[in-house]
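Study this fold:
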Amino acid sequence: MEEAPCLWEKKKFGQKMLLITRELGLLNTQLRIKREDDAVLIPLLRLPSEEEQAAITKRCHEVRIASNCFSERKKQGKTLQEALDDKLAPPLLAKLPHSMDIIGQVAIVDVDPELEEYKHQLGQAILQTKVNIKTVLAKVGAISGEFRTRDFEVIAGTSETETIYREYGCAYLLDPRDVYFSPRLSQERWKVAQQVRDGEVVVDMFAGVGPYSIQIAKKHCTAKVYAIDTNNRAIYFLNRNIGVNKVNNVYAFHGDAREVIEKNLIGNADRVIMNLPEKAIEFIDIACKALQSVGGVIHYYGFEEEPKPLEKVEEKLATTIMESGKMVKKILGSRLVRSIAPRKWQVAIDLLVI
């Protein structure tokens, strides 16, 4: 056991405080986080400065600085390279994946063509180094089709691909073979949920299994969230996730977003989420129709190439929204979410539309 300064906060703020302490370089990753009754104690490397304390309390008022004893984390096991060091030649070890998507107990990995004949050994090594993983999937082909899914091959573990993914106090049942889901958008979902205000009406046009919708509904119990998706399997999991997370303010619609909004949601929304980067621009007109007559906020995701990908998307949105009979009053935020190919980015733009 080791005594260390720590942040004490209620469990519901635990994920937020973890994010803040990482951002400030305060989190002590050598010690285990503690849970006591309804509180979480996060070990720190040092006492925060006055500026850091102000940054912490600004984002969460129900927090205090204390001191406590923490147990040390177990040392990490073998790396993937160490697990395969005696099985693959050095040129092949250099081709090992540097990252993978972990969705609950499922690991999803890109297998380099040169490692194709060794993919099952790679899968077994992942099971060996990632103790909570039960199934390892290799990507086969690109994301495609109306539902943005891709083919996978089981290269190790069980053939069971339905799993539970957790983030920011929410749990999501899903099967990556049936629905699109990216754990890499975790911070994006958190950022959008922080912008929602109590009592708002939110339309999630391409909701999938509900990671935006449910996080918003759980954080803002007086909000109403209308979650739409064309994939019947996504809606199946969405309805299960509504129950699992005990939110009664998410309303699931199976169907094309344009048709659902035309029939049920014209002029209802304070806020619209458009997480369909391949095609979202084609739905701007109906997103504008979903907003209340006084306007509202659109959270738009798209793909764009360099140079100046953010500026290109902002200009394209301003033109398309004007053609839809509304206008952009203000860009509330714009950011590069992730690189999806050389010189090509997924971008996020938050717009106030009137």
In short: DSSP finds eleven helices and 17 strands in the chain. The chain has three domains: 2-70, 80-161, 182-353.
